[in-house]
Fold this sequence. Notes:
The chain is of the alpha+beta class. Helices cover 40% and strands 15% of the residues.
Amino acid sequence: MRQTCTRLRDITKSLEIWQLLVRREPRQTLCLELPVESYACEELESHFLRRKSAEVRYEKAGKEFPFSGRILPIKLALPLDSASLVPGGRWLLISTSRGSVNYYDLNAEDNSGHELIPVYRTQIFHAHRHRLELSHSQV
């Protein structure tokens, strides 16, 4: 198609077109490590077309396209407060009720989390904040 019309070729080489197509895909189907804006046009085109061609092959074979997923056995010493998947889908952040934060690399073979903000630092922060609040209330 790109060889028959120069204008059409130019349009299909537009970064904005590929960013739009990638953004329209459900997050779990296109796993990019970085935000969409970080990629060159050729990289987005390659990711998108590779994914779509795999979907077409599965459809022709009469099979449902498998979505990747796995269960992470997360063991926390404290109750979970919140969890957030960083854009791109590679990193999972989990915070506990005491303010500590752990991160998980979802591309890694092992499922072990790593401490980003330990509990003792948040306890120091909260104690310091409490002292500041007391000193301001005495003024």
